[in-house]
Amino acid sequence: MSKNVREVKGEELVELVKEGKTVVCDFWATWCGPCRMLAPVLDKVAEEFAGRAEFVKVDVDESGEVAQKMGIMSIPDVYIFEDGKVKTHQLGYVPESAMRAFLSENLK
Q1: Which residues make up the annotated site Deprotonates C-terminal active site Cys (predicted)?
Q2: Neighbours of 56 (CB within 10 A)
Q3: Is the preceding omega at residue 40 within 30 degrees of 0, hence cis?
Q4: In the chain, where are the structural domains located?
Q5: What residues are labeled active site?
């Protein structure tokens, strides 16, 4: 388990988003190879961006209803929520430099 990215259930994600918090959410699954490759990348950049967003991950197998409502069709899929709505997302595995650039561009 990551020290900088906490695992939440779909319902908790919905609550965080409703509260208007800036949330970076990794939709993933245990059986997904690219998801497992992305986990340490996200953990590292989450430490760098601490205080600018809350970093969470949602297992699509455990929280399928929320993933379905979000339209998650492929994983990993990293969403940024801001002011109660989706701001943007990054689909698929990306290296650390690309994830850092994505977050730099999209987090206040």
Answers
A1: 26
A2: 21
A3: no
A4: 6-106
A5: 32, 35
